[in-house]
Amino acid sequence: MEKKVKYYLEISTVLFLLLVLIPRFLPGFDNKKIAKESTITTDMIFVKGGTFLMGIDNEEDDEKPLHKVYVDDFYIDKHEVTNAQYCLFLNEIGNQKEGGTFWLDIADLDCNILKQAGKYMPVVGYDDHPIHEVTWYGAAAYAKWANKRLPTEAEWEHAARGGLKSNVYDYSGSNDADSVAWYEKNSEEAAHPVGEKKYNEIGIHDMSGNVWEWCADWYRKDYYEKSPFENPTGPSDGFYRVLRGGSWGSEKYDLRCANRHYSIPKESFNNIGFRCVVSGVEVEKILKEKK
Ligand SMILES: [Ca+2]
Ligand SMILES: [Ca+2]
Ligand SMILES: [Ca+2]
Question: pTM of the predicted model, to two decimals?
Answer without folding.
Answer: 0.88
